[in-house]
Write the structure tokens for this entry.
Amino acid sequence: MKTDTLTRPITHRGTTAGHRQPAKVAITLRLDADRARQLQAIADAENRSLTNYVETALLRELALREEAERVITMYVAPDTSPSIRPEDVIRADGETDEDYAARQALAVELWSIPDNA
Amino acid sequence: MVPGAFVRVLFPTREKPRQPGLLHIGYMLVVTATEAMVAYTTSQPWPAAVPLPAGARVFSSEEALRLNQSRAFLLRLDVLARLPLTPIWFPDLNRGAPYLNRGANEVIAVAPAPLQAELAKFAINLARRRREVVQMRGP
């Protein structure tokens, strides 16, 4: 187990009136030694601090999470079913078997998306 | 209510996501006996400097007219609501509305089959994209 450089004291940068940097919060991150060495090696190779590398990786993770949520925004009203059976999907007039099957599969997938609005 | 229909719906808002919201026209992507998956539409012009969202389909004023709508609009297949089929959410449900002309009381227009197929494919691709992003992100 190793406590990494995220535990270092925070350096407060100077700010100018009207443009104050948001305060950063220090956290303690515990990693097993092998993983910490691996991360440190990557950070060294990229000529950055381990803290900066970890922060960047977390920001990337957050961006992906936000992107996933942005792809489809789902509002779910109270008292709706958590899932749907394909046979419950009403067929459209003139819809081919193939199109209907695709829309049934789509319905099942859409019903699995949680409320993220 | 039939799949492929454009209907009036009190689409929920970001501020009150679990309550009936503002009156919009919605597109019925999936319908069951008791619920519907509705896509949001708006006739508000999209800001020129902002790229269109991946799930947006633009309907010109000519296309809108063919769907009994007076203005060009944007259909957002990336903004969906799962709603019960009740008058609380669909104010025209079970009652005639004077602007309707298809004999189906609650419906403004029904998309022709090719348009329905196009929109379903669009939604399927969007769902696939979402799945890929979620898988890339991990559980």
In short: The interface with chain A takes residues 2-4, 11-12, 14, 17-18, 29-35, 37, 54-55, 78-84, 89, 110, 113, 116-117, 120-121, 123-124, 126-127, 129-131, 133-134, 136-137 of chain B (CB under 8 Å). Residues 100 and 108 of chain B are 6 Å apart (CA to CA). Strands of chain B lie at 5-11, 22-31, 35-42, 56-59, 73-84, 107-110.
